[in-house]
Amino acid sequence: MTANLKNDLLRAQENEITEHYIYQRLAKHTKHEGNRAILQGIAADEKKHYEYWRQHTGQDVQPNRWRLCKYYLIAQIFGLTFGVKLMEQGEKQAQINYKAIATELPEVLEIEKDEEAHENKLINLINEEKLEYIGSVVLGLNDALVELTGALAGLTLALQNSRLIAMAGLITGLAASLSMAVSEYLSTKTEGVKKNPLKASLYTGTAYIGTVILLVLPYLLISNLYLAMGVTLFLAICIILVFTYYLAVAKDLPFKRRFGEMALLSLSVAAISFGIGFVVRLAFGIEA
C-alpha cells in the first residue's frame, strides 16, 4: 500500500468516526423519538464504515474535534436537517480519491454508493418543524423583500427625509405583516393541510417583521438618504443569499437560479419604485 493511498484511507476513517460522534451527540440531545432513532441508526452505520476502513489501515483514528463541535452547533442553531445535509456535502467535497482506493479495494465505489443512498433516505425521514413551516417563512420573507425594498426606494426619492421614510416604511411593513399573517392563517385553515394555521401565520408574520426591521434600520442610522438606500438594498441581497442557501441545503434545491431570480425581482421592483417616487415628487412639487 502506497503512502498516498494510506493517507486517503486514514482521512476516510477520520470522517466516519467524526460523523459517528456527531450523529450520536445529536441523537442524545434531540427530544423527538423518531428523529433520535434515525440519528442513532446513522451513527451505527458510520461506526461500521469506520471499522471497515480500520481493517485496512490497521490503526485507530481520533475524531476531528473541530468538525464535531462545528456541525453539532450548526444543527442546534439552524436545525437538524440543515446541519446534517451541510455536513454530508462537506464529506463529498473532502479530498479523498476513492477511485485510487478502488484500484486496491474494488468494492469501495459500490459500498460508497449504497451507503450514500441509505444515509440520504434516512436523513430525509427526519421530522422537523422548521422545514414543515418553511413555506410560511418563504412567503413572509419574499413578500417583505419585494414590497419593502420597492416602497423604501420610492419613498427615498419622494420624501427626502430619512425619519419620515423610516416611519412610513415601518407603518407599511408592520401593517403588511399583519395582513400576510392573517392571509396565511386563513389559507392554511382553508386548505386543510397538516400544518397548524396559527403556527403558520406566526412564522409568516415573524419572518415579515424581522425583514422589515432590518431593511428600515439603515434609514434610522445613516443620515445620507442614498447611502441608506444602498445599504438597505445590500441587506436585502444578503437576506436573499443566506435564506436561499439555507433552502438549497435543507431542501436539496438549486441555489444559483433561485438566488438570481429573487435578487433580480427585488432589485427590479426597487428600480421601478424609485422611478415612481421621482414622478410623484415632480407631480406634487416636493422640493429636496
Mean pLDDT level: 83
Based on secondary structure, the structural category is mainly alpha
As a percent range, the share of strand residues is under 5%
Distance between the termini: 77 Å
Radius of gyration: 25 Å
**Number of E-type strands:** 0
Helix content: over 70%
Total of helices = 12
Shape: elongated
Low-confidence segments: none
| Total separate domains | 2
- What is the element string, with H for helices and E for strands? HHHHHHHHHHHH
The biggest beta sheet reads: none
Q: How would you describe this protein?
A:
The mean pLDDT is 83. The protein has helices at 3-29, 33-57, 65-78, 80-92, 98-104, 108-123, 129-132, 134-159, 162-191, 197-221, 225-251, 255-284. It contains 12 helices and no strands. Helix 1 (3-29) packs parallel to helix 3 (65-78) and helix 9 (162-191) packs antiparallel against helix 10 (197-221). It folds into 2 domains: 3-127; 130-284, no CATH class. The termini are far apart. With 288 residues, the chain is mostly helical.
